[in-house]
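Justification of computing resources. Each target in the renewal requires a structure prediction run like the one illustrated here; the chain below, 123 residues long, is used simply to show the kind of job we budget for.
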Amino acid sequence: NKTISSLHMESWRTEMKEEINRINQVLPNTPADEKTATIKQWVDSVIDKIDHYKAAHHRYVKQALTLLELALWKVKLGEREENGAAGRSKKVKLDAKSVRKEKRVSCGADTVIKNVLPFLKLE
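Resulting structure tokens:
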């Protein structure tokens, strides 16, 4: 139940609650000799659905974190060099690819993602 309430999509939570409650409508009308099989089928259905939603959640989180990293990198690329004069005095020439790579490493995405990820995990 904690996993279901931590699903970030309301439609997923609603569908899971409906699936869990479905047994209450089905079981009273099920013949006694079929109840065990019906319950097993229902449990399998609930587990399959939650597994599906967990996998989808994982894909969405991965996509969101990729976008977050790219946004942070883009901001870093857009920043002007604060110590431009000091950088020129060193007479170090870096090609654009090296600068982009350095800014990707220094954009802070690893720290931001590490602190955002706990809010996106399922419990």
